[in-house]
Amino acid sequence: MAVEEALGILNVHFGAAGTLDRLATEKDDTFRLATPAGERFIVKFSNPDEDPNELALQSDLLDHLARHDGGLPTPRVVRDRDGVTFFTHIDRHGQPRLVRMLTYLEGTPLDRVDMTAADRALVGAVLAKLRLAMADFSHPHDEREIAWDVQHLPKLAHLLGGIRDPEQRRMLERGLQRFHEIEGLLKQCRRQVLHNDFSRSNIVADRANANFVTGVIDFGDAVRTYIAVDVSTALLNQLDAGGDDTMFDACRDLLTGYLSVAGLTSTELEVLPHLVMARVIARALITTWRAEQFPDNARYIMRNTHRGWKQLHYFLERSRDHISETFAGAPEKVRLESI
């Protein structure tokens, strides 16, 4: 999607003008719009294969969050001149592109911020608030199956053939077997619609702001899944490079903040570290596959994959029971002020 074409679409449908900066994304065209009045917005032109049901789910969820808790730092959907949340544009190549606009959330992406323990606790608290705000949300499309929802991890086993290194492939096979061993426990846990991609690249922050977190973005992986799956995704992105038990220190900071707002059951705490491992496996399989499909974007796709091999080795070199005890004794509730 050329900048000139995008600006023409925005002018017709939103009456918007200004300058567009292209942002790095995995599969769509995303721009930051700066208007002459000084306002900023995010504009997305979907991949031609995008299912409209996916965007309907995201738009309805963002509207729900705005109604439920206006203080949550989530984007607001900007409706076009006809009052719709997204529409179809046939681009100059004859492809259907779903177009939408969102408010822009100021801040620095968390993957560029050096965080303290207190910062990580505040991040965890925001994730818990999101969970509570989504608790009563439902949508006809929220039971969709997506590759990044690790409750479906065994369905990715067919991607093992794309792992060329024999030792890495054996590690992934062992990890899949370990996941099979905890599936029964996972099925005892609670489910609801959740963000499911609470990574540092999807969070923006400002240390000058009392709340630290100023934005949670990219609800593209929102789905009805296990609460523990949602938390494990956030923990993976705080995981150290690996090697010993200190690998989880930053994770515990985030978990402390989370538990200050919303509790987890003993079973959820038990499966949590195994789900972190499951996310490491999913990331290795999915990104390797996608990088082969889209070699021009391989650097972006694989940006977080390589460090996972040492992390996976840590999990596999310890017994299932040892891993299950990783977060044992975490309090059901703590006071955030004590951090």
TrEMBL record:
<dbReference type="GO" id="GO:0019202">
    <property type="term" value="F:amino acid kinase activity"/>
</dbReference>
<protein>
    <recommendedName>
        <fullName>Aminoglycoside phosphotransferase domain-containing protein</fullName>
    </recommendedName>
</protein>
<dbReference type="InterPro" id="IPR011009">
    <property type="entry name" value="Kinase-like_dom_sf"/>
</dbReference>
<comment type="similarity">
    <text>Belongs to the pseudomonas-type ThrB family.</text>
</comment>
<dbReference type="Pfam" id="PF01636">
    <property type="entry name" value="APH"/>
</dbReference>
<dbReference type="InterPro" id="IPR050249">
    <property type="entry name" value="Pseudomonas-type_ThrB"/>
</dbReference>
<dbReference type="InterPro" id="IPR002575">
    <property type="entry name" value="Aminoglycoside_PTrfase"/>
</dbReference>
<feature type="domain" description="Aminoglycoside phosphotransferase">
    <location>
        <begin position="28"/>
        <end position="247"/>
    </location>
</feature>
